[in-house]
């Protein structure tokens, strides 16, 4: 094989593995939403348990209900309560229905709820999700007796739209902060390539006496893994790990998996394995994180052995697991193991997946 072809295949394999790791982060993110991300937490504290609201369960239903409900509630003979407006504002924000959100806003004012802090907070959230930051800020500025949720929501609105400096300006003006405030600002930095700033804020948070929670640590670990300086990444990661142990989160499956992922990205496989062994209730995501760590650091044989152990433990591999395994097979030129994995992929129904298909092509190539 010519050098150019070899380099091209190697580049393609690296891109596939990076795609797998991206999917792993996405899946972890979805799981975190159930666990309680900063946004979900403040919603629950400020607006009650949103999971019971059937209007926001499915985006397709929301898209159908938003125009119908705004038209119905816009009638002069229909009396609407604050909780009903809250449900519709969530719908508008979730499907980014700015036009209807503004109509709801107008109805709220006409209905005499213009000074309602609860609805004001949700209006800021709705405008933020729709990317209309000017209106979000206008509503925020008009909220009388803003509470910590009001400030957190405004930070979240700026952060979701990439306006980190504006988010920090709001953060710095807060009369009081809670763990959600600190975590939202840290996450804003991480999501906008500001890992160093995120870590500075994390240590400042602890100096101020604020206690990080699992969501804080997940963002901090992402910040560590994203640092360009590998030595600094490992050093910051180990310090964060010590804080996680102190907080009692090391055995938590989500935090533990994030630690495995962080150490894997830093090439510290012994630490990744040490953390993995301490997770009390490992799941397929945890196994996949460790397999990916070994695979991406050139330890294909160890990755294949872990894959066998994973199956013996009764864990069902998914597309991300298979992509990491196919990468390991490709680097080892392990054709037989690759064919076995291909058979498992067919059995699992992933063969038609584009990313898995590309990984198969690279493995056989």
Note down, in words, how this protein is organized.
By secondary structure, this protein is an all-alpha fold. It contains 20 helices and no strands. The chain has helices spanning 3-35, 38-47, 59-73, 82-94, 98-110, 117-129, 133-142, 148-160, 164-173, 179-191, 195-207, 214-225, 230-247, 253-265, 269-278, 284-296, 300-312, 319-332, 335-348, 354-364. Helix 3 runs parallel beside helix 5 (98-110) and helix 18 (319-332) runs parallel beside helix 20 (354-364). The chain is globular. Mean pLDDT is 84; it is low at 1-14 and 37-61.
Q: How large is the count of helical segments?
A: 20
This entry's quaternary arrangement is single chain
Q: From N to C, what is the helix and strand string?
A: HHHHHHHHHHHHHHHHHHHH
Shape: globular
Please state the structural category.
Answer: mainly alpha
Kindly report how far apart the N and C termini lie: 11 Å
Mean pLDDT: 84
Helix content: over 70%
* C-alpha Rg (nearest Å): 24 Å
Strand % is under 5%
